[in-house]
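Look at one such:
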Amino acid sequence: MAREFQRGHKAKISDLTAGTDLYVGVQIAGPGLTFDISCFGLDANERLSDDRYFIFFNQPKSPEESIQQLGAQAGDTESFRVTLDSIPAHIQKLSFTAALDGAGQVSQIGPGYIRIVAGGEEVARYSFNGSEFSTERAVMLGDFYLKDVWRFAAVGQGFDGGLEALLKNFGGEVAEEAEAAAPPAAAQAAPGFAPPAGGAPAPSFGAPAAPAPQQPAPDFGPPQGAPPAAPQAPQQPVAPQAPQPQQPTAPQVHNAPTIAAPMAPPPGPVAPPGPPGQPQAPYGQPAPGGFPGQQAPQAPPYGQPAPAPGGYGAPQMQPGQPGQPQAPYGQQPPGAPYPGQAPAVPQGGGPGLGAVLEKYKEAPTGQRWTPQNPKLVRVDLGVDGQPVLAKQGSMVLYQGKVDFSYKGAGFRGRLTGNATGQEMQLMRCAGQGQVFFAENSAHLHPIELQGDAICVSAESVLAFDESLQHEVRRIEGHGIPGGALFTMQFQGTGTIIVKTQGTPVVLPVTPTTFADANAIVAWSAASQVIISSQVSVRRHAYPGHSGETVNLQFRGAPGNFIVVQPYEV
């Protein structure tokens, strides 16, 4: 039985199958969409350092044929053969991608998948659909990567550019397009491990074949009896369930601006419920009396004058909508809704629910840390598998299988934190999925460190990669009111999320740079910080002071900086 993967999940190939000769099938399609499905063979730095391992329609196999593009077959839009034990040592990762060729967006696709077949049996499948994406034009589907052993990761991340942008992202160079295209792989003889020809037609979007194989399965390739290849032409999506008199045609189902069904009935006069025992007009048709010259078969409602002939001359009008006539019967006095009836929904003209919520959709980037808006940040724990340390209670949403545990500082750490005021109450987030962090609508700023260091007050830290080293650092000087003599220093490779009240300003360090100790947020660790006091004996002899008696002075070489927020703690 195939193991179902969710976005961000990973597993060892050896846990899925003992074989190394694998079939990888991809199903992705949408109305009027054409996709280029490719495989990038990347080095240890996740770069395409050898363009011979960019497997696509013009280069269907690697030099030693450890990676081969097979074409459409067995219900898959595209398929590959991967022989793991034949891949050269300098190739550490295989990234399977799909990019649009022509107009369109990935959000228009129907249900799709990437699957792994070994020994004639499907062992893994990651399913996705267009609702997981927005305006992207490409998607990174899944990865094979070498981390002591070969593993599989379900990625499912959208990418803004097309195939050329993907190629540049992986460090490749885009050559001039040749006039003559390479012959299609389908014209070649089918390999021995390919699924048998014939069989039942493939259902929509490549659903798995139900019947069991009737003959021994080959050593590799899709299961026997699988449906034949689905054509590249757009497939017909499943018709929506809700009855709509003016429903668009089926091929436009995935072009809708939202996946939510419309909450309002189609434009036109809506017949209110009539009196008990009175037959209702058919759905979408006006009630009797709604056409010129036609009288209502029912007596006028209580307290209402008889409707004028034609139904359009009724004196009562719907509140807030001048010129719109009421239904000819079954209504309460003007301004009062029918008992138990919800207020009428305005008809036509306005944007749909999806168009209104479009600007609030999740912003996938394929990166580990992604700001969703100025006050919300998302971390993808599945990008490199490293846990995250975050302030306790700062998680507002998560997806996937994520474990949250208490992260203690130890006896010495607690003692140091209490003595210096730099104690951080942390939790550890590990697993596979995405976690969203926020706190009190504070502005959040991801700062990526590449072996350098930064000093941040513990109060201004929301989350950071566990790979970063952090320690308490003492500020030189004679003292600051309130005992704020210390700060936290973070160093290493990773990202730290700093929070501020309002939009901060970043200034370069000069010999005359001073900052309020209560407004400073962070500074480069190479800066020299000393306490500057303007308090004098004479000033103490008189009541009152300026409120700016103690500041921090910064000195350092060019390139150092400070970050100050428009708020004093």
Q: What stands out?
A: The chain has a mean pLDDT of 74.
